Amino acid sequence: MRIFAQVWIGLLFALLACNATAAPAVLLSIENKVETARAASTTWSAAQTNQTLQVGDRLRTHRRSRALLQLSDLSVTRVNELTVLEIRAPSTGQTGFLDVQSGEIYFLNRERPSTIEFRTPVASGAIRGTEFHLGV
Could you tell me the pLDDT band of residue 93, with boundaries at 50, 70 and 90? Predict the structure, then answer.
């Protein structure tokens, strides 16, 4: 019975750890003025390091500001100044979806090539590889 309880507790901790890292994106670092808005909200608030971003959340950087965003597949996206983007739900089999309304992002994944979808006001596509620069 004791082994069963230990296994059950171990599974519970594993599930909690998966839920903690299940966020589509995490803000690793911010420089100067970076703001976020929760899904379906029009109110922008100051971003915080290690803040999680869920589907529908938006991120914007001001002049001379930037942010480093880690997506759920552990790839890193640098968000340059004057950028506005939204975290969207990925299509089946994709690891992420960014709706870049304006600005520049730089995508980097040193581990393995992954597929990140993106949409801009004039185009949409997918990043299939390890490095990509997108400017709108």
Answer: low
